[in-house]
Amino acid sequence: MDARIAPIAPDQLPELYPALCDILIETVGLGASVGFLAPLSFEDALAFWRGCGRALEAGDRLMWGAWIGETLAGTVQIVVGMPGNQQHRVDLVKLMTLPRLRGGGIGAALTLAAEAEAARLGKTLVVLDTVAGNPAQRLYERLGYTAAGVIPDYARSSAGPLEPTCLMYKRLGG
Ligand SMILES: CC(C)(COP(=O)(O)OP(=O)(O)OC[C@H]1O[C@@H](n2cnc3c(N)ncnc32)[C@H](O)[C@@H]1OP(=O)(O)O)[C@@H](O)C(=O)NCCC(=O)NCCS
Question: Does the residue 26 lie in any domain?
């Protein structure tokens, strides 16, 4: 499955809100721990993406989409608005693929695109957290991320139970 990966500019976001809301609502509905409890309403999903739009406009985040034909199939962001003593690193956040299109390499392609831009910007470290033992952790390990450690009971899955989070990092450009 060949996806087209492209950056999403702040002024492109509004036309993508419905598709982004679908991805987020479906992802939360399947239990993923991406910051929300299920069920997630369209209004709350929209408020989240509007907040991301403000962060893009402020230059605090960068965002990518993955398209299969005309379908927005996945998305990822990096946080570049870091404190003055952490300008060398980014957080990789909100990696999501439409459930029906998972397993085809979209998550890996989005992660690699975000890393490539981070490296181009001179960043040397990517940090993320993900539910310990989930498919995302395997994906990140395959892409060269190191597990720094696991924090128990870090956040609730969207279905409710507390889950452990694995902190991970990858050095860039070396
Ligand atoms: C994590 C996630 C983004 C991966 O997206 P993806 O497009 O399926 O990514 P890839 O296809 O590159 O890799 C998925 C992995 O799951 C495997 N897989 C196979 N079939 C799959 C399926 N039907 N569904 C999910 N994963 C599948 C792939 O083989 C691959 O395994 P590997 O890394 O051991 O090789 C996606 O599962 C998702 O949106 N999860 C919910 C949100 C989430 O947890 N995000 C991470 C937050 S840090």
Answer: yes
